[in-house]
Structure formats: C-alpha cells, structure tokens
Amino acid sequence: MSRPRRLAVRDRIRRLDPVEDHQEIVRLSGMVDFPWDVTRALEFALFRTFASPRISGLLARTGEFTRRPQRRYDDTDLLIATFVEHGYDSPQGQQAIERMNTLHGRFRIRNLDHLYVLSTFVFEPQRWIDRYGWRGLTYNEREAGFRFWREVGVRMGIDDLPADRRSFEAFNRAYEREHFRYARSNEAVARATLGLFVGWLLPPPLRGLGERGVRALMDPPLLDAFGFAHPTVAERAIVDGALRGRALAQWVLPARRRPVWRTRRRPRSYPDGYTITALGPAPAGIDPAAVGGSQADPSPDP
Q1: Which of these, 61, 120, 184, 208, has the minimum number of CB atoms within 10 Å of its CB?
Q2: Residues 273, 251: contact at Cβ < 8 Å?
C-alpha cells in the first residue's frame, strides 16, 4: 500500500473550500477516514453535556436517559447522522432538524445551554482525533466542522452563534469552567449512559473493568462533576496506549474506500426500521409538571 493512497481523502479535503464545501468535508472526514473516532467522540460529547446540572437535571426529570438510555441514544444518533450524511438542507436533513426542534421545543432550554451542546459537537471530535486519530486533522477539516455545526445551529434557532471557530472554542472552555460541578442528576444520567456503553461490549462480570476503562478517558473536571472515582496513572496509560496502538495499526492497514452510513445500520431500538418523525419520546410519555423549568437539579443553582 502506498502512502499517497492512504492519504487520498486528506488530499482531496485539502483541495476543497472549507466554507463552500464544508458539508462534503465533514462527510469525507467523518464517514471515510474517521467514522469510528467521530462516533466515540460524539459519545463523549454527550457525556460532557451531563456535567452541567441544568442539562442533566432536565434529562433526569424526563427519566428518558435513566429509564431508556438505549432508545434515547439511538434517537439522538439517528437524528444527527441523518443531517450529517444527507446534508442539513436535504429533505431528510430538514426533517431530522425539524424533529429535533420539536422535541427541544417541549422544554424551556436556555440558549446558553443549547450553544454549549452545539459546541461539543464541533470540538470533541477534533480533540479526540488530535489525540487518537491515525493522522492529524487539516485546517480545512477543523474549519468545516465549525461551519457545519454553526449552520445546524442557525436552523435550530440558536442565538448568539460565534462568528469564528476560536471564539466558539473559547466559549466552550468558559462554559465548562463555570457550569461543571457535581449534582445528583449529573451522576444519575452519566451512570445510566456509562452502563449502556459498557453493556454493548462486555458481559456483566467484566463491566466494572470496562467502566474503569471509560473513566480513564475522562478529564478531572468531568469526573468530579459526575462524582466518579479518578483512574490510576496505570489505568490511563493502558487505555491511552491501546487507542494510540489502534491508530498506528490503522496507518498500516488498507485505506477505507467506502463511507460508513450510520443511518443504514439496524439500531438496537428499531430492529424493524424507523421513521424520522417518530424518533424521540412521545409527548404523552412526559409529565410537563416534571420538566416545566430549565433549572436542572434539585440542588441550588446560583
């Protein structure tokens, strides 16, 4: 296998315009060169949102992520994958964003929290690939990721969207410094989701070990916000080494030729198929009195 062939997608991305061609760049990067990495990074992006008591408290009160974590994971994954894979202005993409807006519109969610969630979709994949990717990201990929999610934010009606990538990342860091703190709702939602992820791969006797491995990928502020025990230096080294070893193996393996379509897989929650308009919890399944406010945790929120 020649080096040019391994880097063919990267070279193609470099010839594209990160503003005009940002949707194509996001698809090439996320569906061909880094499909596994982007999926894992978006899972950790989901985790990071649980560290804000306002966000986790809303999720805890609905009970959706604690009682039905697999269903809610699949709903989120399918909606996002639809407008990533087909484009946000495609018929499918428009339908997915409209469905997402309908689901969010049932609750009073602060614009600041919407902005933070959006920012995690921009920066967590970039940070993961910087650390564990088999190659480095290009400027075009970083800028296209920002442009793509900013356009999604426009279609979601999110206000005060930053005009440039550096400003958005500064907002992301500042939000975490200000809002990450322990709350019971953080821990409840995070433990349910952690159990879901580990349960996919390991039998019950080994799930404790798997949970320690996942925690080894979390930074101290995130662990503290969940009330999770900090991993040992050895645990971090083992997990970090395993993922870096995977990246080295990818470098020498043949390049992927075809994109990975998440919308074409058979989700665990929908073995017989699904429709975009049916994704998410039904209104009748939510007690409006339980989720009437955006304050997210029984503990005080100064």
Answers
A1: 208
A2: no
Q: How far is CA 63 from the centre of its chain?
A: 20
pTM: 0.89
Domain of 191?
3-163+178-255
Distinct helix (H) and strand (E) counts, the chain: 15, 0
What span, in angstroms and rounded, lies between the C-alpha atoms of 250 and 248?
5
DSSP class per residue in 11-76: HHHHHS-TTTTHHHHHHIIIIIISHHHHHHHHHHHHHHHTTSHHHHHHHHHHTHHHH-HHHHHHHH
Annotate 240-265 with DSSP letters as a single string: HHHHHHHHHHHHHSPPP-S---GGGS
Whose tokens are 């990067």? That residue is 29
Sole residue written with tokens 């491995």? 213
The answer as to whether 260 is a domain residue is no
The H or E element spanning position 225 is helix 220-226
Contact between residue 50 and residue 59 where contact means Cβ atoms under 8 Å apart: yes
pLDDT number for residue 288: 35
One-letter amino acid of 263: T
Q: Give a yes or no: residue 149 inside a domain.
A: yes
Q: Is residue 300 part of a domain?
A: no
Position 233 in a domain: yes
Both tokens of residue 153?
């934010």
Is 149 within 8 Å of 122 (Cβ atoms)? yes
Q: How many domains does the chain have?
A: 1
CB 104 within 8 Å of CB 58: no
pLDDT greater than 80 at residue 294? no
Let me know: does 51 contact 172? Beta carbons within 8 Å: no
In 10 A of CB 222, how many CB atoms? 20
Q: pLDDT digits over 196-205, tens only?
A: 877 877 777 7
